[in-house]
Each structure stands twice: as structure tokens, then as C-alpha cells.
Amino acid sequence: MEATVAKTIETPDRPRLGGNPAQKDNAKRTLAWPQIASLLRISYVEWISFQTGPHASDSAGDHIARKLSHWGGTFRNFHDTATALLQVDLLISVCTASAHLAGALHLPVWTLLSHTPCWRWGNQGDSTPWYPSMRLFRQSEPGNWESVIESVHDAVIRLRDGRK
Predict the structure, then answer these.
(1) Is the dihedral of CA 162, 108, 89, 56 positive or negative?
(2) Best CA proximity match to 113, nearest among 130, 88, 57, 105
(3) pLDDT of the residue at 82
(4) Strand ranges, E, within the chain
(5) Which pTM was predicted?
(6) Strand, coil or helix: 29
(7) Average pLDDT value for residue range 101-126
(8) Domains and CATH numbers, the chain
(9) Listed residue (88, 91, 95) closest to 116, CA to CA
(10) Which of 10, 120, 122, 146 has its CA at a distance of 20 to 30 angstroms from the CA of residue 44?
(11) Per-residue pLDDT reduced to its tens digit, 140-149
């Protein structure tokens, strides 16, 4: 059986960032659409959603969501997800299967973590021995996603400027 390949959008003049913006089945690691939507205000990035399942349409009706390409609906399996990951420059996600897959493939991935994340991430630092290509962004206090999103925003700006 032939796998479905995620569509590509030719935009060589700007970076592609993909992500799975919410995971509603676990409140501790969930971001509400308005929290993640603030990143879409960075206009020189092509934003791609890897969100699948019932929350893939959470952004519907939001004017800022027009900047978001939805690829997640085309994924039938991890092969499809891996194919899409190979087409983006960076994945930004909470702790999801997509983040683990990107890390396992040694692709650039930024993982947003709650204040008390799963044991595998440890309690401090911005890197993990599990996935050398992964950068961790941690909550400074329980429920404070705003500071995480602000750190991610600043890091995306530094990418544009060629800084780390």
C-alpha cells in the first residue's frame, strides 16, 4: 500500500516551522489556541500545523489562523508524519509523538514542557541526552505557558537573525 505524502508548498524564501499546537488529553501539557497563536504573528515564517484528531480545527474562525497550513489531516501513520517532518526546518511542539519522531530522526525540534514534565526530560536544562537535535523550553512555574511562548518567540527571532 502506498503511503500518503504530505503536500508541499514551495516557499524557499522563508523558513518552514511545523508543530502540533495542542494535546487536549493531558491538561498539564496543553496549550490553548490563543497561547500558541501569538507565534503566528511572526510573519516571515510559513507556519504548518501537524495537529491531528478532534482538536485539529481549534483554530477555525481565528483570523490569525489564516497564516497556518494544516498538514496533520493528511497523516495516516508515522511514515506520513516523518515525510512531513523532512519538509520543515524545525518542529515546535509540546511532548507529542511528532516531537519524539523528529528527535529520533535527528531533526531540529523544540519541545515545550510543563513545570513538572515526564521523567525523561529531567527537571532542568534545555537539552536531553535522548535526542541531541532537541531543544527544551520549560515552564518557570506551573501553568505558565506565556513565558514559554515568549522564549520560543525570541528564539525564532534569533534564528532569523542568525543567532542561537
Answers:
(1) negative
(2) 130
(3) 96
(4) 16-20, 46-49, 68-70, 90-94, 109-113, 134-138
(5) 0.79
(6) helix
(7) 91
(8) 16-160 (3.40.50.2000)
(9) 95
(10) 146
(11) 998 899 999 9
